[in-house]
């Protein structure tokens, strides 16, 4: 039996990468799925793939930095499908992290503010808009995509990391506030996930370095994250809320010298 049969889901950042894989998997598990992204053409392509596989989905353009746009996304899902059961807050300001999120000593406060506006405030507004509809249907599941960057320091992207750490805290607050009304909220922390954006030739050395520090024999894929989201969205996780699930191949659970010890 499909684990998300008769459910209605919104996946943000779903035009590519983790979001696209999650939207396809959620739809394959039986949910009517809103594929939401700033890139509406990319979202439409994912919808076409879902439809070709026999699923039901619609594309919605959303700008997480725009409160009205986020609320309209939720309204579109409810209008089209009659309610809402699952919200996967996956979208993030990766364009800022990739080019403009400089180390703390050089950080631009404007980039910091924009990162928080999209990654953190946008998620809060999505939750705020979604929860009443979930309660009306007897409950629901919210899954926030945090990051390993929210659990440990690094040499770059401090605004991104701080926003992802804050998402874990927001997860606790949402789980606490709405648990008695049947709404669960959990977060996931992907490690290094191989996507189109991270698989170019320039990233080969980075991938080799990252693989040495994983406990698994391979790096992660978007499908690995999608599987975790489906589990947390399903009734199989009915007694799980306020938790952070690492989908990172064990990257952050060992002593920092393990990779060096193996090589020696």
Find the CATH superfamily.
NAD(P)-binding Rossmann-like Domain
In percent terms, what proportion of residues is strand? 5-15%
* Named CATH architecture: 3-Layer(aba) Sandwich
Question: Strand pairing plus helix content: what structural class?
Answer: alpha/beta
Keywords: Oxidoreductase
Family: Belongs to the short-chain dehydrogenases/reductases (SDR) family.
Enzyme class: oxidoreductase
Protein name: Glucose 1-dehydrogenase
Question: What does the model show?
Answer:
- The radius of gyration is 18 Å and the shape is globular.
- With 264 residues, it is α/β, with parallel strands linked by helices.
- The chain has helices at 17-28, 40-52, 67-81, 94-99, 109-136, 158-178, 204-212, 222-233, 258-263; strands at 8-12, 32-37, 57-61, 86-89, 140-145, 183-190, 244-247.
- The protein has a seven-stranded parallel β-sheet with strand order 3-2-1-4-5-6-7, sandwiched between helices.
- It contains nine helices and seven strands, in the order βαβαβαβααβαβααβα.
- It has a single domain, classed as NAD(P)-binding Rossmann-like Domain (Rossmann fold, 3-Layer(aba) Sandwich), CATH 3.40.50.
């Amino acid at each position: 039996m499909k684990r998300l049969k008769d459910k209605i889901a919104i996946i943000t950042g779903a035009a590519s990468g983790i979001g696209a894989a999650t939207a396809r998997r959620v739809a394959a598990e039986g949910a009517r799925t809103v594929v939401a992204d700033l890139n509406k053409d990319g979202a439409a392509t994912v919808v076409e793939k879902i439809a070709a596989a026999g699923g039901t989905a619609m594309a919605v353009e959303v700008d997480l930095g725009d409160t009205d746009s986020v609320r309209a996304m939720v309204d579109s899902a409810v209008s089209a499908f009659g309610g809402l059961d699952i919200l996967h807050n996956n979208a993030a300001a990766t364009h800022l992290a990739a080019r403009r999120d400089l180390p703390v000593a050089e950080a631009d406060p404007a980039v910091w503010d924009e990162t928080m506006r999209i990654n953190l405030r946008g998620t809060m507004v999505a939750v705020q808009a979604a929860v009443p509809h979930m309660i009306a249907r007897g409950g629901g599941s919210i899954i926030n995509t945090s990051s390993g960057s929210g659990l440990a320091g690094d040499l770059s992207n401090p605004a991104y990391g701080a926003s992802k750490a804050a998402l874990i805290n927001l997860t606790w607050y949402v789980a606490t506030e709405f648990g008695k009304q049947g709404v669960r909220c959990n977060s996931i922390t992907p490690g290094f996930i191989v996507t189109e954006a991270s698989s170019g030739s320039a990233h080969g050395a980075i991938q080799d370095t990252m693989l040495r520090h994983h406990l698994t024999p391979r790096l992660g894929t978007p499908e690995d994250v999608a599987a975790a989201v489906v589990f947390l969205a399903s009734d199989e996780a009915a007694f799980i809320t306020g938790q952070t699930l690492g989908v990172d191949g064990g990257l952050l659970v060992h002593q920092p010298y393990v990779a060096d010890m193996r090589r020696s």
